[in-house]
Each structure stands twice: as C-alpha cells, then as structure tokens.
Amino acid sequence: MDEHIGNHAQEKATNDIRQTLPRNYLEVSRLQKNSLMVTSQGNQSSVSISGSISSSTLKSKEEKSLDHTSSQVRNKHTPWEQWIFKKASERFRASLKSVQQQSFEDAKKQREQEEISEKMQKGKLKFKEWIERKNLEAAQRKKMAEIALIEKNAEETRKKALQIKSEERYQEWLNKKRKTDQTRRQKRETELSRRELAARQKELQANTCFKNWLRNRKGLNKRIPQSYCISNGTFETYFDRTSAPSPGFFNKTNWVS
C-alpha cells in the first residue's frame, strides 16, 4: 500500500516536472544554439567571451526557472513530491551541464578545426606562392644563364676575330719589316760592294800611276850638287841636302823689262 502511494506520488511529481520543464528546456536549447552560432562566427577572444556569457546566461535562466518551479512545487506538493522534484532538478542540472560542456567542447573542437583549416589554407597559399616565386626565380636564372652564354659566345667570337685580325696585322707588319730589312741589307751590301770596288779601282789606279811614275822616273837625271866649295885651293861642288834645289823649269822666253 505504501509502495503504491509512493509510486503514485512520484508519478504525479514527474508529471508536474514535465509540465514545468519543457518551457525552460526549450529556452536553454535556443540559448545553446545562439551560443554555437556566435562561437562558429567569432574569433578566439570573442568566442571565449560569448561562450562565458552564454553559459552564465543559461545558468542564470535555468536557476531562475528551476527556483521558480521549486517554489511552485513547495507550495503545491508534499515533501516526498518535493524530494522527487529536487532529484529530477538535480538530474536536469547535471544533464544541462553535460549538454553545456558538450556544446563547449564541440564549439572548441569546431574552432580548433577551423583554425587548423585556416592554417592549412594559409600554408597551401604560402606554399603556392613559394612555388611560384621559386619557378619565377628559376626562369629568371635560366634566362640570365642563356643571356650570359650568348654574351660569352659573342665575346669569344669577338676575341677570336680580334686575334685573327691581330695575327693578320702582325704577319703583314712582319712581312713589311722583312722586306724593309732585306732592302736595307741589299742597299748596304750594294754600297759596300761599290765602296770596295771603288777602293780596289783607286788602289789599282794608284798602283798604275805609281808604276808609271816609277818607270818614267828611271829615265830622269839624278839630282846634281847644289853647293860649291874650295878644297885645297880647288873649286869643287858637293851635294848639300839643305841647299835650295836647282830650278826644274827654264823659261826659254827672254825676260821683258
């Protein structure tokens, strides 16, 4: 009999709680939804603030609702029903706390996932920019290498052409110098030959003249004495080298005074 009364009281209290709680539970669900929307749209600081505000708002509304319901239960029901209502309220608070904790964790996970996704997007963007920059640098290096190779080939071609031209000019100068040296040497040899021939001719002519003079000299009279003296009372002539020679030419024309 007592068990039947207790079950009846518990069932009645549960019905009263069910009539009272749905309005509060819907309010809590609406506030949780608003909290999740704010959490997903805001940054980390605004999410934390909105989460704390939503939690405090939910808690205050829940406590007010439950306190109001408790005051109604105390006024209308027996202590047993009040105990049943208290236990149901505690279970509801625990369930609501669990829901809030789960909502907070879900929001936190969602925020972390969004941060990870944002970091991945930024990383992909940076990697793409890095790849584009590296490709551009590689293209520029390749282009510069090609330009450097072209300039190097042009410089080598210019140097080869300059070297060939220099060798041609040197060969031309060398040939000209050889011709000049040969001409100078021929002139010197010709002049030397002419001088030698002239010297030989002069020497031959001198020898001829000397021989002719010597041959003609043999037919001339010897030099007669030029000095006179008296020796032992006799008038004599003698050759004196210091005396003036006798005239070699006699003008046969008489002197005209």
UniProtKB/TrEMBL annotation:
InterPro entries: CCDC34 (IPR045323), CCDC34/181 (IPR025259). Residues 77-255 form the Coiled-coil domain. The keyword Magnesium does not apply. Residues 39-58 have a biased composition (Low complexity). Transmembrane segments: none annotated. Residues 37-74 are annotated as: Disordered. Keywords: Coiled coil. PANTHER family: COILED-COIL DOMAIN-CONTAINING PROTEIN 34 (PTHR23247:SF2), NY-REN-41 ANTIGEN L15 -RELATED (PTHR23247). This is CCDC34 domain-containing protein. It comes from Mesocestoides corti.
